[in-house]
Structures are given as C-alpha cells and as structure tokens.
Amino acid sequence: MFVYPTSMPMIFTGKPDADCSAPPRRWGRRLVIFAAAGLVCAADAQFVSFYDHAPGRFTHSNAVDYGLAGSGRLKNVADGASVGVTVTVTNSGAVYYPYAGVPDYGTPASIAFEGFVDFGGQPNPSITLPSSNSVLAYTFSGLDPNSEYNFQGAAMRGDWSFTNQWSLLQLVGAATFTSAHSDGALTTAQVPSIAPNEVAINTGNNVQGVLAWWEHIRPGAAGTFSVICRPYTGPVPGGSSGGTAYGINGFRLEQGGSYSGRISLPPRQPNLAPNSLGGLQTVFVLLFENKDWSAILGSTNCPYINNALLPIASYCNQYYTPHALHPSEANYLWLLAGTNFGIRDDNPPSVNHQNTTNTLFHLLDQAGIPWRTYQENISGTNIPDASAGQYLARHNPFVFFDEVRTNLAYCTNHVRPYTELAADLANNKVARFNFLTPNLTNDMHSAATGGGVPQEILQGDQWLSREMPKILASSAYSNGGAVFIGWDESTDGYDGPFGMIVLSPRAKGGGYSNSVFYTHSAALRTFQNIFGVRPYLGDALFSNDLSDLFKTIQISSAQWTKDGFSLTVTNVTPGKTNFTQFSTDLATSNWTTIWTNVATLPWQIITDSSPNDSSARFYRIIELP
C-alpha cells in the first residue's frame, strides 16, 4: 500500500559547537537543529557570552541585551550564570532603526552566531550612526587583566544597494591583542590610514557576514577594554564610503585567547517530502498589507473574515515573513522567487529590477500554464512600473522582472486591471494562477478617511466581502479552485505571525487551523507543488508547504475479503476522475491501472480481484485535476 504523506518533518542534527548551545531549537527558514544536550564547553574557554541588541525568535535564552544606554552582567551561554563581567553601552547620536539584515547561511557571522543572536528581532534590530560624529561603544569591565579574551562582532543593514555605508570598529584600552577579521573587512593591510586596532566593514549590506574579530585580547590594568563603532569615511579600494553607518548589534565574548566555537555549519538539506497536493486546478492569491494575525482573528473590524470565511476555511496561526525580511517589496518578490535578491527597501523597479528567469511565472510559462495578475488602479495599456495614486508598484512583484518590465505585449497580456476579474470569472476565462492586488486603501495599508488601524482593517474586510463572493461562486473555484488570502508582513516590520487563509473544495475547511511554522517559502512551494513546476525556487527548496491545510487523498485502510484485496480511499473529490494503480517494485515506469472511477462521494472502496498474480503489490491513487 502506498500512501502519500501529508507532511514530513525536516529535522537535521549536527555536532554541537564549543559554545555549549541550549537544547535543540528550530531555526526558522534554515531548518537546522543543533543538539547539545549533556555537553561541556571547550577546556580553554572559561565562559562564552553572547549579546543580542534586538532579541527575537532565534535569540538564545542566555544572551543578554542592555539597549543603547544601559549596562549589566554578561551570562555564560552554557548555563546562564553570571560571568562577573559587566558590559556598559553608551552612545552619542546613535538611533534605532526598524529594519536589519541577517547573515547568509554558512557565512562567518552565521557560523559564529547561528542559534545565539537573532540579528532581526523587533522592533528595532539595527543601530544607525547617521552622522560623522555618531558613536556607539561597548565597554567591558570586571575582566581579569591576567587572562586573554577573544571577541567577534557584526552589524548588517542587509541592503545590496548600500555599497558606501561603512563602519569603523575600534578596539580601545587593551594592553595587547591580535587581529583575525574575516575576509571582506578593510584593515591597515589594505588601507594604511586604518590603525592596527581598527577595522572597517560595509555594514550597509554585510549579509556576507563579515566579522570584526580580535583574539588574545589582554585587558588594561583595570580589567577593561572597549569596542567602539563610528562611521568610516576613509578610502575604499574600488568603492567609496561616507554613507550612514551601523553599529554592532550582536557580539560574542569568550574568555580564552583563541576562538573555540564552531568553524562550519552543516549544509542546508533540501526538503525531500513528496508532493501530496492533488486535485487543484486554479489558484487565486490575494495579498493584504501589514497586519498582525492578532489584529484580524476575532476582530469586530473584520466581520466578513471572521464570520463568513474562517468557518469554512483552513488557516495558519504561525505564518511569518522569512527571517527579518522587510519592508513590503522584498516579501512580494520572495513569493515569486524564493529570494529577495538582497533588496530591503521599497525602491521602484527602475532601481530594483531583476534580470532573471528564476521565477514562478517563468516556470508556469515553460509548462504552458496560463497566469495573470489583476492589479487595482492600472490601465492595462502600459507597463505599470511606477506608482501612481492608489496603485503601488512595490505591491506588483511581476514588474520588477525584466522579462515583464521590458516587453509591453507580454506585460499587458498578463498584468491586467482588477476591474476585468469579474467578467473573466463569469465567463470562466481566468488563468490557472491569478495574483490579486487591491489598491492602497483596500489592502488594509492606509485608511481613506483616517481612523488608524481599525479603519484600515474594516475597509479591507468590506472590500473582501464584495469581491470574494464573485470568486467563490465561479466555476473556476468550484472545479478544483483554491484561494490563498495572506498578508505581506506584520505590523511595524515584525516578522509575524500574520494571516494565511485557504478556501477550497479541497481544503480541510470547517475552521481547521494549525500552529505549524510557515513563511512565504511555504506558500511558494505550495504553488509549485500544485502546478508541478520545478526546480524549486530559492528557499522553497528547503521549506515545508501548506499541504496540512488541504485534504489529502489517501488509502486509509486495506484488508482481505472474499472478493480480493479491498482498499478504502478517502478525501477524493466528488465529480473528479481518479485512477487506482499498483506496482510490484515502485519503479516509475511500472504502474498498472486496475480501476478508473468518477467519484460520487468523498470516499470509495476499491477491490483488487487478482492480487495473487505477484509476490508484492504497492498501491496509489491519482486524481485528475
């Protein structure tokens, strides 16, 4: 008997690091777990401490944070005990900033900090140094002047376009030290005007995870030293400096002359779970803006969502942006490509356009699957790559790709005014993949008449109450349709959770919900699984999908009867044709159909009358769209 699984856990274990990490935890999009139970720290490390300026979902419970102007004891990450060392944070002109990048997996900062420092916690993960005299300082006291220490620190805004935003990081007050800065940093070896105790790093981007790194630090006689962050305005070989700088927002301090932590991370492992989504023909994706799930679920300002849709839907309670992915534009791009291309701003397509065909819509084109996006407040006669009035280009991810942006005929064939959707639904002319974008007022982003968040939500809910009945009444929906109602991100740049609601004849429905961790990668993988288009794009390769929200055709029981071998099949779609097949060896080419049936009920019993013809048989059910 062959049963398509509804989900497969993606849990990988690796050797722990010398930092003595806490019990295993799931690390979001990275889908990696490090086991560390029963371990001790490396012999030469009396303590290892982590500081996370903006604690988030992936911050270790024994990391500390004392803001921009505070002080407190560091903790040993192994057991949470105070190490007797105080860190004092001071600043002049430093400012909180709501967006930050995170280091790419496997980079030096990722290796050193993964599972200890979040880098994207909210509400203000970055520390900006906006003027030339801005300063952020971490001063350590209570150190043993006769011991040696090592320090690693990182900062990153994570925007690919911020090429001139460099920070100068200085080690001050140490009696002796050696430098071990990671590749990509500027030191006195490249720029003689940089002193031996200094290093310059492009913190405007730095998803490359470049670290400021000093070893064999012997404190001053009073048992102190400081790490100071300033804007760097000096020479950059092949580039320039002088833009806004960013202060260190995560560091690691170890008692011991040399670093004893991890030197690598295990490779990310693809999710090999088979596709269990079947019977779906047409997809509608509808995206709202910037609202927490707690602001929607149960809200009196969302009567249509809560009273009409959720009782018949399946929905997620733990759906997030990919880690620290903000603002809006990057999340829209992620839904089509599984990556943000290093974009962490809302600049127009003229600045942030991408020359790549690694997109969902290109895969659909290759497979001959029609797609369309319906956008409110566009004319349909030009390429809408500039915002105008209630239309925002950053909410239309398709026009960021040169394949659409530079081809008027291709664009106008696929990017259509939202006003055309009703007629296309009535005439059964919608494409198989449809991406729907309300305008700035209707998408819960901004209220037309003021009133703040309650009015924003109410307007979006009222718009949905007018538009959703048209979709739900269409043959495109009733014949294998699925509607995904989601949000791009949470309020004020938080990762979430925010809503993802699924309506479909194939969904479990009835108000079913789960608390599985999802990101936009799961939605993209779901779309690819529904249409069977490969390869998986970007982070979708490693993600789970939303199959738990759907009914899955399965062989729920099997038994011998006097007539042969009887199979009970559940979750078939009435009116759909399905095939029961068997194989003796599971070879792709060796499946034989023994029954063809048009289901009249959501379950059926099938009997194989001659199972003794082979020594072993495996069974599967295939449903046509």
Number of individual domains: 3
* Large-scale geometry: globular
Find the count of extended strands (DSSP E, 2+ residues). Answer: 29
* Class inferred from helices and paired strands: alpha+beta
At the fourth level of CATH, the homologous superfamily of the largest domain is Alkaline Phosphatase, subunit A
Rounded to an integer in angstroms, the radius of gyration calculated over CA atoms is 28 Å
CATH topology of the largest domain: Alkaline Phosphatase, subunit A
- Percent helix range: 10-25%
* Uncertain residue segments: 1-44
The major sheet is characterized as: 9 strands, mixed
Under the CATH scheme, which class of the largest domain? Alpha Beta
Average pLDDT score: 90
Helix count from the secondary structure assignment:
12
**Fraction in beta strands:** 25-35%
Distance between the termini: 23 Å
CATH architecture of the largest domain: 3-Layer(aba) Sandwich
Polypeptide structure, described:
The protein is built from twelve helices and 29 strands. By secondary structure, the protein is of the alpha+beta class. The chain folds into three domains: about 230 residues, no CATH class; about 270 residues, Alkaline Phosphatase, subunit A; about 70 residues, Immunoglobulin-like. Strands 15, 16, 17, 18, 19, 20, 21, 22 and 23 form a nine-stranded mixed beta sheet that branches. A six-stranded antiparallel beta sheet has the order 2-3-6-12-8-10, with no helix packed on it. The protein has a five-stranded antiparallel beta sheet with strand order 1-14-7-11-9. Helix 4 runs parallel beside helix 12. The N terminus is likely disordered.
